[in-house]
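retry 2 of 3: previous attempt timed out while embedding adenosine-5'-diphosphate. Reduced batch size to 1 and resubmitted. Inputs unchanged:
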Amino acid sequence: MRIVLMGPPGSGKGTQAKRLADRYGMKHLSSGDIFRAEKSSGSELGKALAKYMDAGQLVPDDVVVEIMAKAITAVDSKRGLLLDGFPRTVAQAEALDRTLAKAGSPLDAVVEIQADDNAIVRRIVGRRSCPACNKVYHTEFMPPKDDKKCDACGAELVQRDDDTEPVVAKRLDTYHQQTEPVMGYYRSRGELPVLTVDGNKDVKDVTADLTDALESLGNV
Ligand code: ADP
Ligand code: AMP
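retry 2 succeeded.
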């Protein structure tokens, strides 16, 4: 199955995508993780991406589409695919359709994780991330065993440059203006299942709702 996970920043897409990928053996592709890896490589492209990311703005569509089309095409087509953070504009959604059509493997469903703006700010400001293995924690809701280190690989946890309150406000604004219309684009397609789950619940309850939603489609 090829699934797009939609939802505002901090709604839990990455957390849930990792759990679903483990459960179903799907490939999890996060545009944010791919861009952060490029940023920490120190490349010219990484520096260009960082300008947008650290300001809470979207990276331009042409850059995003080129990077993501390459990443998607590299995934074994027999393997399920979970997209997280891409697409974020209608133009990106159209480009994704073209990439998947070329590969002969169109989207099976879009699943939106909804979460309230005040829950999102609290989640993002408390998020701590492992720069080595991308595992994500929360100071209050999902603390690591050792306050500062990753449970999985022992690396020092960091707060992302864009996980500060002023940048979160900008990212939410960007989401409402540029990414919410993508849901309208998918809903207008008619034949494509578009499902919504309540992301305000506890992590394990959201996972249970997501697995129910995916299994209701069959073929997962
Ligand atoms: P996204 O990928 O949508 O930006 P994340 O999965 O990184 O969101 O989650 C954002 C933060 O909220 C992380 O610190 C994560 O540990 C925490 N989190 C995720 N889901 C929940 C939940 N259901 N309840 C409480 N905290 C959560
Ligand atoms: P995320 O990890 O999904 O919160 O993404 C972090 C940042 O990377 C975003 O705030 C954007 O600056 C950038 N980014 C990630 N995915 C996209 C995308 N599909 N389109 C444009 N910018 C993106």
